[in-house]
Design goal:
This protein is mostly helical and 607 residues long. The protein contains 26 helices and six strands. A four-stranded mixed beta sheet has the order 3-4-6-5, sandwiched between helices. It has a two-stranded antiparallel sheet with strand order 1-2.
Length: 607
């Protein structure tokens, strides 16, 4: 891997050929996302919710209704499930590595799509840096390496928005029609990945396009930002009131501020849209029609099979109630994402303040304005939505990184604003040293504390590459930005690999789940207090859920072999509350997965 990486980086830096660069960028992205991809077990609920339904589709032969532990799971549409199930079927293997392939491929395609979409208007070097920054962003790279839907959704949204903008700006009716159709297909794919969420990003794209193409974009943005600050302040007061008066939390959580903000920006965009206004609205509506047409057959098939009462109850439980619960659990201040973004995009996140430079805004072309508005307006929109999760704003990250790429591509001496030039100079000097040193120090510390040969063989080549890149930056100071990219990419990969390795050793459900699955296949009765998605992935067979204390005690007190999966804390409070159970004993665990999962039985485990 180190040799491949060095060759690719050399060609990337020195390539004057656009086609050669495209292939080298794709190769680098593939090497990065597939490096040790299958090493970690499936341990999180989120990844279990994506990897398990495809496995159960293959086993049951039912590809219409996703299930987890044999129970219908219609929280998300099935496009990613179908992709993973297809690979399970084609390879004959159900494993974490196979489950992560679709997401990893989407991540590599997203990186190359960002470069190809921006290079004509933004310029070759700017487009390259937009792709580099995306690949070497901690949160984006992490999501590319997990079997989750966030990166496929980001790819679908990006393709839809890029095609929508291209369609509006084309003068040829034929080209406009083709780009509209492409945007509609991408929009349909996005709906089949995460339901109605893509509508929000398509709305933001229309607003950003109309404002960026207008005659007075700067003034419109300033007006919108003033009123958006008011909306954020009102949202903050509403949250404070809800904390003081919990009985009215739902009422105070009504998204009045969000609705007002959406209407305000829509009005500003409409007034500033100029000659492209009618065309943009028509194409926008056409994209939605095509997208709904693409996604509707699956919804109609589910409705036909399950009936409306089932669908209505599911929507209420999984959309209305689940959204409220998620909002309450994951809630934060309206400034949550502003605080999170620098870490999500480190080290590039420290350049985000440059987006608010008036001089930079005036000096940059329309695509810069579009990226900034699209990115920040998406962040603002989700800041006014009660639930706070990093993945909510992941589809806007490629657009946020576009203005940043303009700054990365610029040489400090060509910048007219002194504070921007100084900011970039200090940033380059600091991170060209800090990142390689951190990578090398991390590898040394890991060697001293966790000398696991297989882990060190993965980590040390990355640390050495980061150190070499740092040394080269002193030989060629103009190459410090590429040094930062190289070292950041290596350091992020090191961190992800080490974290996954530790989590797999300490938190994996694999051993306990496979034991339960083997017991079921051998004919023994196994039940559970709760079956987590990652546990169901490894159990490979449904484990019945039983939460009746009396029934469980009776089974444990009988002479028929019976095993029960439960957390240790729940066992003490839930089952032993009625007194000790004579035959019951802990036969496996407790395991670190979910802190204290264990298997209780009235007989020793069979050999």
């Amino acid at each position: 891997m180190p040799g491949v990486f060095v060759v690719i980086m050399s060609l990337l830096v020195n390539s004057n050929s656009k086609n050669r660069f495209s292939w080298m960028l794709l190769a680098l992205a593939l090497v990065t996302v597939f490096y040790a991809l299958g090493r970690a077990d499936v341990i999180t609920d989120n990844e279990g919710q994506r990897a398990t339904p495809p496995a159960e589709m293959v086993r049951s032969g039912d590809y219409l209704i996703p299930t987890i532990n044999g129970v219908d799971y219609l929280v998300k549409p099935p496009l990613l499930y179908w992709a993973i199930a297809g690979l399970y079927k084609a390879t004959g293997t159900i494993s974490p590595f196979i489950a992560r392939i679709p997401t990893a491929l989407c991540g590599a395609l997203l990186v190359i799509a960002v470069y190809l979409a921006f290079r004509k208007e933004a310029g070759e070097h700017t487009a390259r840096w937009a792709a580099f920054a995306l690949l070497a962003s901690p949160y984006a790279l992490e999501r590319m390496r997990w079997a989750e839907l966030d990166i496929p959704l980001t790819l679908a949204v990006f393709l839809c928005v890029a095609a929508f903008r291209t369609a509006v700006l084309r003068e040829s009716v034929r080209e406009r029609t083709l780009w509209t159709l492409g945007a509609g297909l991408a929009f349909g794919a996005a709906i089949l990945l995460k339901g109605p969420v893509p509508f929000l990003f398509l709305w933001v794209a229309a607003v950003a396009l109309l404002i960026a193409q207008g005659q007075d974009a700067g003034r419109v943005v300033r007006t919108g930002l003033v009123w958006s600050a008011v909306a954020l302040a009102v949202e903050l007061m509403s949250q404070a009131a809800a904390a003081l008066v919990p009985a009215h939390a739902k009422l105070l959580g009504t998204p009045i501020e969000l609705t007002a903000m959406l209407l305000l920006w829509t009005a500003l965009a409409w007034r500033n849209g100029g000659r492209v206004r009618s065309r943009a609205v028509g194409i926008w509506l056409a994209i939605m029609v095509v997208g709904v047409a693409v996604s509707a057959p699956w919804g109609l098939a589910v409705l036909y099979q399950k009936g409306w009462p089932y669908i209505s109850e599911m929507l209420h439980n999984q959309v209305v109630e689940r959204t409220y619960v998620a909002s309450r659990i994951n809630g934060g201040t309206p400034f949550y994402f502003l605080i999170a973004l620098p870490a999500m995009l480190a080290p590039w996140g420290l350049l985000l303040p440059l987006h608010f430079s008036k001089g930079q805004w005036k000096a940059r072309p329309g695509v810069y304005h579009f990226g900034a508005i699209m990115g920040w307006l998406s962040v603002l929109m989700f800041s006014l939505i009660a639930g706070k999760e990093y993945e909510y704003i992941l589809p806007c990250i490629p657009f946020l990184l576009l203005p940043t790429a303009f700054h990365l591509a610029a040489e400090s001496e060509t910048l007219t604003q002194k504070w921007v030039a100084r900011w970039l100079t200090v940033w380059r000097a600091a991170f060209a040293v800090l990142l390689p040193v951190a990578a090398l120090a991390g590898a040394v510390y890991l060697t001293a504390t966790e000398p696991i040969p297989s882990l060190l063989l993965l980590v040390w080549p990355l640390a050495v590459l980061a150190a070499v890149a740092g040394a080269l930056s002193f030989v060629t100071p103009r190459g410090r930005t590429i040094t930062i990219f190289s070292a950041a990419l290596c350091l992020i990969l090191m961190g992800l690999i080490v974290r996954d390795d530790r989590a797999t050793r300490d938190m994996s459900p694999r051993e306990l789940a496979q034991l339960c699955g083997e017991l079921v296949h051998a004919g023994y009765t196994v039940e559970a207090a709760k079956v987590y998605p990652a546990f169901a992935f490894y159990a490979a067979t449904p484990i019945p859920v039983n939460i009746s204390p009396e029934d469980i005690r009776n089974k444990l007190e009988s002479d028929t072999p019976f095993y029960y999966l439960i957390r240790e804390s729940d066992y003490r409070q839930f089952l032993l509350n009625g007194g000790e159970i004579a035959n019951a004993k802990i036969v496996a665990g407790p395991y670190g997965f979910k802190k204290d999962m264990m298997l209780v039985g009235n007989a020793e485990l069979p050999e």
